[in-house]
């Protein structure tokens, strides 16, 4: 007998306070951790230990989807994967930020800054502050096929 536990089940069964889930347009889901506060680096480490990452938003549509979830479910600022390293904006997954039309830019200081979201507002904060955080996971669809003794495929 094949036993399969989907990634979605795995991520929602974490005992660390997953409270809200929504689907993103790129077959991803994000999860808001309201009951856990960490600094940005520790939040990133926590995500990676649990096979996920802080959320990356690729366009304004995804930003709006996240803001809708935050507006209805949170009264706290939460880390997203965006941070300023030296003079460039990067995502937690290492991608460089290309589309900045949907987000405010950080002040021109050289101090590391990390992005937070609160309801419909994205702001820049000191990365060492303790905040809730939003993670992403990629949705997956697995189809198991087994050849039976009768010579037929089972799906």
Automatic annotation (TrEMBL):
C-type lectin domain boundaries: 30-136
PROSITE patterns: C_TYPE_LECTIN_2
A Pfam family annotated for this UniProt entry: Lectin_C
Top-rank lineage group of the source organism: Eukaryota
Name of this chain's protein: C-type lectin domain-containing protein
Origin species: Hucho hucho (huchen)
């Amino acid at each position: 007998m094949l036993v399969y536990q989907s990634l979605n089940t795995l991520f929602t069964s974490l005992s660390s306070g997953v409270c809200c889930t929504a689907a993103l347009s790129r077959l991803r889901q994000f999860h808001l951790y309201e009951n856990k506060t960490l600094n940005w680096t520790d939040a990133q480490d926590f995500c990676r230990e649990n096979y996920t990452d802080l959320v990356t938003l690729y366009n304004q549509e995804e930003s709006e989807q996240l803001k809708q979830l935050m507006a209805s479910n949170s009264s706290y600022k939460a880390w997203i994967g965006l941070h300023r390293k030296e003079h460039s904006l990067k995502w937690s997954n290492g991608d460089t930020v290309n589309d900045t039309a949907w987000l405010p830019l950080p002040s021109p200081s050289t101090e590391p800054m990390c992005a937070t979201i609160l309801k419909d507002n994205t702001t820049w904060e000191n990365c060492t502050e303790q905040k809730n955080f939003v993670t992403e996971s990629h949705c997956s669809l697995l189809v198991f096929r087994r050849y039976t003794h009768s010579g037929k495929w089972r799906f």
